[in-house]
Amino acid sequence: MAELGFADGVLFFPVTAFDGKDRVDSEVVEQHIATGVEHGPGAVFAACGTGEYHALGFDEYEIVVRAAVRATAGRVPVVAGVGGPLGQAVACARIAERAGARALLVLPPYLVQGPQEGLVAYVQAIAAASLLPVIVYHRGTAKFSTASIARLLEDERVAGIKDGVGDVALAQEFVLTARRSGRSDVLFFNGLLTAELSQAAYAAIGVPLYSSAVFAMAPDIATAFYRAYREGDQEIQARLLDGFYAPLVRLRDETPGFAVALIKAGLRLRGVDVGPVRAPLVDPNPDQLERLRGLLEQGRALIA
């Protein structure tokens, strides 16, 4: 993991905090990230999906990325999300570079689904907008073919591939494509929602890294799982998957957008004033909030 300077740890996707007037609260963002870094993540992915990139203006985006850079203080790399409309993605790439990010996570384009040639051009245009390496996110309106991944890997600025589709056979082809091209430096990530549930399958095909939204609200639980995963402790992994992660996914799947909303709710339950999610996402109702509280208590009991 030397190329991007990632440490050995969970990939941390922090939330973006909003105050009572719906403004980005940079102090809370910085505190939230600094607290998470104390638990030893491999990198911080700021203003990405969990950080509500879709809901941020340019000024707000810069505030979030700068807060992340201050909070990490060089201890781990900051990767900033970019994507959506191409003009917005290019502008955000330049903002992230000025703000001190070390790399970019290229989120899918907005609304439209282009052909493979267009998707490759989309990534190339973003990569050309700054000097930062880019990680390609394979999901949604940006589903790449093996041939497209091969073309993208010809550019050394493409430093990683994050899979959010869940086709393990295709992800295996991406790994083999990188190997054939001689790109041993390419990082591969499991980017599925609540990736802990599927990481055993990804590790088996040569994808050792995964993103963890749970780390943002419960770094103790997420780190305990990661440690068990790295040490091959099947008993602890199974205990957490069955008693915490699987029921959390069932709760998450009740409402669209809960992959983010539950994380912010979990932080508020800890007393971190990150505020609500922005539309079109919605916060959990009182019953769902109590169930989340119970799950977090159960998760901590399992690692006690």
CATH homology group: Aldolase class I
The low-confidence parts are none
What profile does the largest beta sheet have? 8 strands, parallel, barrel
Portion of residues in beta strands equals: 5-15%
The average pLDDT value, as a whole number, equals 96
Number of domains: 1
For this structure, what is the CATH class? Alpha Beta
Number of helices: 12
Strand-pairing-aware structural class: alpha/beta
Task: Give the strand order of the largest sheet, numbering strands 1, 2, ... along the chain.
Answer: 1-2-3-4-5-6-7-8
The CATH architecture can be given as Alpha-Beta Barrel
Intertermini distance = 31 Å
Number of strands: 8
CATH topology: TIM Barrel
Over all CA atoms, what is the radius of gyration? 18 Å
Helix content: 40-55%
Task: Explain the overall architecture.
With 304 residues, this protein is α/β, with parallel strands linked by helices. The protein has a single domain (11-231), classed as Aldolase class I (TIM Barrel), CATH 3.20.20. Helix content is 48%, strand content 11%. It has an 8-stranded parallel β-barrel with strand order 1-2-3-4-5-6-7-8, surrounded by 5 helices. The radius of gyration is 18 Å and the shape is globular. The model has no long low-confidence stretch (mean pLDDT 96).
